[in-house]
Specification:
It contains 7 helices and 31 strands. It has 600 residues and is α+β, with helices and mostly antiparallel strands.
Length: 600
């Protein structure tokens, strides 16, 4: 007992007594700490249980003890030891009283289950009768449904046959209409196909005639060249034979007599052959191509029948001062040379169109501001100075001969040109007035001040004395020099708003414009005849840039050679005549052949 009641000085886990000196902790069966009073009580209970006899209802935990207590919380029987240990503070009851109460509850439950069984048996009988009635009802419904279905199917079949008969009648009528419509449509399509075929045959015949015309023109030119060449060979053979006979009989009187005759320069009379003709005819013939078009009823057209210019070479202008970033094409000097100036107009330079060699005509001078220039023959040139407001006429060695001050400060921004009589023409850019100036004296001969336009942007003159002006808008106007009245206005809005015009050495008007885009542009050159007829809008195309402030400009120094200044590059373009430019035409060639046949 001493080990069981060892004082530990802990709070009692049974009654919770923790007063100092009044509670002493004891160990009971090595499970809990108890005070002395609770430990003795539990010990007596344990000892009492041990001393009892054989039990009738053993405890589930302690087989040797009687289970005389029932725990309502856990719903298990137990002994008193479990009641004061494991099930402490649970709701407990005497097991005999609990069993008596439980028997009464079970009897009541048995009575309820007996009544419920009788009720369920009665419900099963009712449910069976109900099921039989429902089955009989549904069987009746199934029979009615089958009978109705058969009747409806029979009626539907009758309606189907009747509808099919009606549909067949309608379909026969529709088929007759469709067949009739099909025959009509086939006839229409056949007519259309025949029309397309007829149009194709017509276009094919026209293109064949045009192609034969081109072929005839080229062959006629080849035939003529062959005749000239054969004639030259015959003359050469004759003169060669005659010359050899003179060598053989150089001592005879006949020879002396013939040598005394005047020199007839027979060799000079022999027609010279055009060495470039075969290459030219080959280029002309190969340029003719068939441009196919979309659509089954379109054959296309023969391209390359007209003359065109092709870029033969591109020359980088060499020798310009380093500060010249963008030269400006001014005019032609002669058939081999053009004139350009720097962007500020401080210097004037001559450029050879074949080699690209550059020679200064007027070295750069910061006090000079060349606006435009024109060359008066081979000895003199004129330029307008926007800094000094004067027009200067100088010799080719840069010595000023005459100067002219136009009214209203018109000399400052004056476009210059030379008419067919060698007189200097000055167009006031701002006021739209043209002055005719004597190139030798510098005196103003006449003023054309009733021009019906303002803000002249480009200016040149034709051989017949007419003036060509490009105004501030996209249009070119022709003026009679004598009156200043507009002869014709040619709108060019569909070309471009930024165009430059130039009258070439062939008296044709060349227009340079560009299709501007965001980063790159395509420069184009169109050509107009002297009467304002558009000969060809896209004569030539070349890459350019929208950054160029002065835009591309062109000059035709001699027929067949077109020079385009594009930035600091010179595009030298050579003319390739089209096959349609060759004469005679097919009709004329046949006429000549018939005439020659009659004469022979």
């Amino acid at each position: 007992m001493a080990a069981l009641f060892d004082s530990l000085g802990l709070t009692c886990q049974e009654c919770g007594d923790s007063e100092e000196g009044a509670t002493q902790g004891y160990k009971v069966v090595e499970q809990r700490h108890l005070c002395k009073t609770c430990a003795e009580r539990i010990a007596h209970a344990i000892l009492g249980d041990v001393s009892a006899g054989k039990v009738k209802r053993p405890c589930p935990e302690h087989n040797e003890k009687e289970a005389d207590v029932y725990c309502k919380d856990c719903q298990v029987p137990m002994c008193h030891t479990c009641a004061v240990t494991t099930h402490v503070r649970h709701e407990l009851a005497d097991i005999m009283k609990f069993f008596a109460h439980k028997k009464q509850t079970i009897k009541r439950d048995l009575k309820k289950m007996s009544d419920l069984k009788s009720e369920n048996l009665s419900f099963l009988e009712t449910l069976t009768k109900c099921s039989e009635d429902i089955d009989e009802h549904f069987n009746t419904l199934e029979n009615d449904l089958a009978t109705t279905f058969a009747t409806k199917v029979m009626n539907a079949e009758k309606k189907r046959k009747s509808a099919i008969d009606v549909a067949c009648e309608v379909a026969e009528e529709e088929i007759d209409k469709i067949i009739e419509k099909r025959e009509s449509l086939i006839a229409y399509l056949n007519a259309q196909a025949n029309n397309v075929k007829f149009d194709l045959e017509k276009k094919n015949n026209a293109l064949s005639v045009e192609l034969q015309d081109m072929k005839c023109r080229v062959q006629h030119r080849i035939s003529k060249a062959r005749e000239v060449t054969n004639f030259s060979l015959n003359m050469i053979d004759a003169e060669d034979s005659d010359a050899k006979s003179l060598l053989n009989y150089c001592d005879s009187k006949v020879v002396h007599y013939r040598l005394q005759k005047p020199d007839s320069t027979v060799v000079a009379m022999i027609p010279s052959t055009d060495k470039d003709l075969p290459a030219l005819l080959t280029a002309m013939a190969k340029k003719v191509t068939l441009k196919k078009e979309d659509g089954e009823d379109n054959l296309g057209y023969l391209a390359g029948t007209k003359r065109s210019f092709e870029i033969e070479k591109t020359i980088k202008v060499q020798g310009l001062p380093d500060d010249i970033e963008e030269p400006f094409l001014v005019c032609r000097v002669n058939q081999q040379t053009i004139a350009i100036r720097d962007e500020a107009g401080q210097g004037l330079y001559k450029v050879n169109v074949e080699s690209g060699a550059i020679n200064p005509l007027m070295v750069a001078d910061k006090n000079r501001g060349i606006f435009d220039a024109a060359f008066l023959g081979n000895d003199h040139f004129a330029y307008s100075d926007y800094k000094h407001g004067q027009i200067y006429i100088c010799s080719m060695d840069n010595e000023k001969v005459e100067l002219q001050d136009l009214p209203n400060d018109g000399s400052r921004h004056a476009y210059l040109s030379v008419d067919g009589r060698g007189r200097l023409l000055a167009a006031d850019h701002v006021h739209g007035v043209v002055y005719v100036i004597d190139a030798k004296t510098g005196a103003i001969c006449r003023t054309i001040n009733d021009i019906e336009t303002r803000t002249i942007q480009s200016f040149d003159s034709l051989e017949n004395g007419e003036i060509v002006i490009k105004s501030g808008h996209a249009e070119i106007s022709w003026f009679y020099q004598s009156s200043g009245k507009i002869k014709r206005i040619l709108p060019l809005e569909d070309w471009s708003g930024n165009i430059n015009c130039h009258v070439g050495a062939d008296n044709m008007i060349y227009v340079v414009y560009a299709d501007e885009q965001e980063q790159s542009s395509t420069g184009k050159v169109g050509v107009l005849s002297s009467d304002g007829t558009v000969v060809q809008q896209n004569l030539i195309e070349f890459p350019t840039s929208w950054l160029y402030r002065y835009r591309p400009r062109c000059v035709l120094p001699r027929p067949g050679t077109l020079v385009i200044l594009n930035g600091s590059k010179l595009h030298i373009c050579r003319e390739i005549p089209g096959a349609s430019d060759l004469q005679p035409s097919l009709t004329r060639a046949k006429t000549e052949q018939n005439t020659e046949a009659r004469h022979s």
